[in-house]
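Researcher: Next sequence.
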Amino acid sequence: MVEGIIAALIGVFAGVGGTFVYERQRRAGGKHKADQVIAEAKNKAGDIVLKAKDEALKLAEDAKKEETDRRKSWEKTENRLAERETNLDKKLDELDKRAESLRTQEDEVEALKNEIREIRSRQQEKLEKIAGLKKKEAAEKLLEMTERDIKQDLTGLVAKLQNDAKDTAEEQAQLILVEAMERMSSEVTAERTVTAIKLTDDEMKGRIIGKEGRNIQALQRATGVDILVDDTPGMIILSSFDPLRRQVARLSLEMLMKDGRIHPGRIEEVVAKAEKEIEKEVTRAGEDAAREVGVIGIPKELIHLLGELKYRTSYGQNVLLHSTEMAHMAGIIAEEIGADVRVAKTATLLHDVGKAVTHKVEGKHHHIGAELARKYGMSDAIVHAIEAHHDDVEATTVEALVVRVCDALSAARPGARNISAENFAERMRELENVANSFGGIEKAYAISAGREVRVMVRAESVDDLSAIKLARDIANKIESTMQYPGTIKVNVIRETRAVEFAK
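Model: Next structure:
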């Protein structure tokens, strides 16, 4: 047993000794590895330090190089500035020298001017003494001599220019206008607004008047038209400033006479129905007119006003027929001369649209029509052409002139308008009075149905050049003071007679 214990102790000591030896060996190996790691770290640190030093040196060299380049650039800039400053100083010196030279020259020029003035004054005094005339008198005499010498030449030149203009322009204008009139066929006789109603029999008058006048009073209240019943057999007269009201009254009476039932209740019903019928007819007339001339895009408000022109007349000429006739001619003329066909046709169709409301709105119909066209969005060219179709507004576009020409053509053709003999004679007298209002007139005659005014002047009072000016002045006064269709020719005649007797 002791041996076993000894053996166990020996085994324990042997294990402890082995463990001690192993631990010692392990520590020795760890130290060796640590030394290796430290050595490697020192080597790497040395390499890093070397690299850092190299980079620091490189950065320092780059900084020095950049500083050197910057200094060189600054030096160049300073050199350029110094050079420019030197050049500016030189230029300033030169400018000062030039300014001084100019001042000297100005003084010399001023001295020369004064000397020339003195010389001219002395010469003028000598000339006035020699001629016996003052400067102003000599200038007036020279102008008189010059005017006398060139007056005949000026008269001939004016006449030549006028003849040349007529030769080149009148023939072409006549050709275009004649072609337009030939291609445009329309009725010669003008329609009139109906103001008289024919009755079936005289008994119908009493039925229209009604008991104690109730029926006729109801008719007048509902239509706004004065109904005149006189002794004329089978006829009553409708009187109103509004042509649409007259049409409503006419249609109402025709419907009542056809129906036979005439009393206040029925009258109101029939008048309301007639108003609707006339409204439809007005719109249809405006649409038909626009369709006939090929104009599209007209606002419905203007179409309605255009249709109302069907019941309006001007000197007996139906205004809607007059407008459609003009639109056809305007399209032909505009196409021939290269104007805007759409603008010309639209403006001519609408040129008298203001007449539809002249009984409601104050002013001339062409100004009212232009305002209506502008209100409903028509273009400026169309508005101007409408407003300028009479002479109180200057026509500044070709289309406006086309409208003006077509208006004169349509109104002046034979049979277009009915003018009473009294109005005709009054217009002839007015033409002659306008011509006689100028000085130097011996006689004045209105001839060719007012298309020409022939003026005889006194030869001793009016020379050839003044006669040309007189014709223009008379024409301008006629344009500004009179209203007339077409054109009026002013023919000024100056006759010189030389009489001598042989003895």
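Model: Residues 185-194 have pLDDT under 50 and may be disordered. The chain has 14 helices and eight strands.
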